[in-house]
């Protein structure tokens, strides 16, 4: 922790020195005359202003935050925001796993398989982060919701070109984006953002494993490389039919081709013959290649009838899919090929949505809204794994009778809601709502037939109080119900076996308690959470913010992986150790959230001159959780770190058109007791990002940035309560450097 803190302070020092030099230069420069000039100040609404005016607690981030570091992946923007971290491409709020956080695109669920790395920030208008659900959006948001608002048609013509290059390892890659928007005749406006991008990352990996009740000790080291290219665009057409009537057509298209490859050398330090199955090779090579695509088109109609009634209608269709081919190639100590395992699969998704809501003023203080939603989504999937024994030149399926058989699922979601926004008086306002949502999943396919229906009613209450009716400060409170439904993969009863312990052939050996097979559970119920949120927000005169908040979630029907059980199974002639997910009784999580941001002169008036163009920001979050059916200590929710600290600064020079800044993120190592048998330790994480931008002319600017400096090894250590076995996996991430040029036509 000391290293990144010291490095960040060292990076901040040049900004502070430059700021002081600018102040000194301004103080010593002689004035030409004593005549006072008239100064006209026009203040536009900032993200903080918009946040203060929201009827519920919501954090808003616009173009300033999206453009600051010249990021080409939205995940890099998100990891710097308060209370958010991104792990393995998954968005996590309040330290909770990705499944607890809802991701929306223009208010609708993101396409299946969508990754934050697939979207360029240049295509985004703003980000909306809410920690407590609202009635007009799905309540599948125990940790919170991220709503990605795509770029809107501009009021004046906009033509921007961005070209950049990024280097992480081996060779640089390129990215480019072009945005063209305009208002044309007849009330028509459009915007066409297009992005192309590449990526190339290489990481070093290490592992140390003790298994088979201590009989086998293995160490390995290697590397993995991920590279590929992609394309996305999000065209939008706005048609102003009248003063209060609009029609909007929004498209969203993304496609990419990915490649992953790696090598891993395993050394057998200890082995007891007859008590374990050794790895099939000492040198493993892997190759994975595939494609992903998603397309969506939405039509939205808005009309305001007079001054007191509004209607919004939406309809959308979408499709997408992915395919992959994963090869595992193994050689023995002599370098002779001994085994080849190929896993291939593809899936396709189609969805259609309909929604509508109607709002009306009721008296002078109430705005009542009612609405409904209907979504139907289908998924078709095939997957097979075959092994080729290169010694005997024979090929066989990994799981006979299961591999290659198709699977499909139909998910139907319906919802109805009502809400009332009530301006009680100059100090108090309230938001009441109730939402009823049903998700029905029907699946067909060998080993995966099931029918699951979940119904959840979510009452919601949000309160705002202004201690001073004429002031800017707010006290916010929320009492809400939210939930997390099990996904299709958790419900499917198809097994996934541990490949070190085959179920067919001459060397069949029963797997161990620490190397179990996996199987889904079609009887899983949705997790339900009752939440309380309280926050005090102080809005400073010059646009700064100080926020202190606490939250609590009480969760029932928590979904957790059960301890391994030895049982007779349909996919093997012998008993196998198997794990599955079950609903436990309950869990609780709570936390303290602190956030400060603003101009340095406003936050520390005794240290900085009012003209110093230095902005500071920091957030500190503490999290605690407890799972009722898991013995302590450390029986916390999966992946939730005890605390997280983000801090940074931005500085703009006066004498030169140069701005610079940095952002740092720190989290400690921590243990999670996953079950009565297993415990997992996650290693500490820290990262430092920095940028410097220069305005070359009115039309051109260039930006240099680095992401992921000072990162230590990341990974996990799994240990077992009744066994000497353990599994340590580590990965050394690599920082990447970028240079971007932007031209405005």
Automatic annotation (TrEMBL):
Gene3D superfamilies: TonB-dependent receptor, beta-barrel domain, TonB-dependent receptor, plug domain. It is a multi-pass membrane protein. Residues 1-19 form the signal peptide. InterPro entries: Beta-barrel_TonB, Beta-barrel_TonB_sf, Plug_dom, Plug_dom_sf, TonB-dep_rcpt-like. Coiled coil: none annotated. This is TonB-dependent receptor plug domain-containing protein. It comes from the Bacteria. Keywords: Cell outer membrane, Membrane, Receptor, Signal, TonB box, Transmembrane, Transmembrane beta strand, Transport. Residues 253-658 form the TonB-dependent receptor-like beta-barrel domain. Belongs to the TonB-dependent receptor family. The keyword Zinc-finger does not apply.
